[in-house]
Design a protein that fits this description.
With 188 residues, chain A is mainly α. Chain A has nine helices and no strands. In chain A, helix 7 packs across helix 8. The longest helix of chain A is centred in the middle third of the chain and has 30 residues. The first copy, chain A, starts with 5 loop residues before the first helix and ends with a helix. The structure holds a DNA duplex (33 and 33 nucleotides).
Amino acid sequence: MARYTAEHHEQTHAAILQAAADLIREHGFDGVSVGSVMKAVGLTHGGFYAHFTDKADLLAAAMTQALIPTVERFDRWTTAAAAADDPSQVARAYLSDHHVAHPGQGCAAAALASEVGRQDAPVRDAFATGAEAAANTLARIYPGEAAWGVFAMMSGALALMRAVPDEAMRNQIRTRVMQDLRKLAEGE
Amino acid sequence: MARYTAEHHEQTHAAILQAAADLIREHGFDGVSVGSVMKAVGLTHGGFYAHFTDKADLLAAAMTQALIPTVERFDRWTTAAAAADDPSQVARAYLSDHHVAHPGQGCAAAALASEVGRQDAPVRDAFATGAEAAANTLARIYPGEAAWGVFAMMSGALALMRAVPDEAMRNQIRTRVMQDLRKLAEGE
DNA sequence: TGTACATCAGTGAACGCGCGTTCACTGATGTAC
DNA sequence: TGTACATCAGTGAACGCGCGTTCACTGATGTAC
């Protein structure tokens, strides 16, 4: 056929996509350039257009890609918490120092929520799909349908903890949020 | 003294600051340029440096300025809700269609939370001060100290509602969040 | 087996553009005399 | 009251830079014969 096999093309495509998914969570949609993504993959900017039609195309795909591990984690956490009959396990993992310090590998909602509303429709659609899946997954351990309140509180709290420059204030936020989540897990 | 009175200089300074406070909430920190702020005030970009040392200086001041009405609103809402003995008034106003549709005049936390962590120290310090004041104010109607959980849930929910492109999903989020907030307002 | 050719992922120079910042300037006004 | 001067907020051309995108190209490999 040609120089490269089909798998090689797909692998590069996937690597670009994953790098973009990590970088948007770390630096925001406006903080990543086509060049910086390609550099992260070890290529130069010109080759980008063999894989995506333009930057908007990449951002929409990266939004979807960033939400996959987000939802998977909620799935694992809620499964474990339900088995242990201890809902607070989820919040303890979600609000951990590690998650606060590593947005690039963390929840896409906490990293990007307030920016998504300013993005194009494809990005917003991708976000809505992932967020709904996350809220549904959390409903396993928080009574009722799609647990939007819990999802909003946890992602909002993580964003606040990252925004605040003071370790003591971060701990204060975490303590109070976990207390409130305990109250929401109680009863019918 | 000179052509302009001291008041004139201060008025222009205040107008630039207010325009920046509105524009960062509407378009994000990376979505505003020195030129766009000056244009909003009816001036040209060159005059900017008679009022601020650089863009970072403006952003830090604008962060503070954007949080002033945010905290004032929480103050008014919680006072009214306490007087009416109806905590849900706050969430009803905060999660209103009007607030969803007008981030430029709305809560600075919902509009910017996930971006603040990537900003310089002065912006983050300003944010922390305002967020703490908001959480303290909300504690009037939600039992306990600084109501970080309620603040995180409300600001997180508003960000989610703005991110999502579907009216039905927005309503679903609002309904569930208000239900959860009712539960948090109950009891000791 | 050996040679000529076709393929195509990736390269890097080039483009037009908007950005933050600088700077020589303008021109309306207050002050000095 | 009238004239010369000083002040300084605001103007707009210019700068260097990074961006998204285009495009002629390279060069390693598969295929044809």
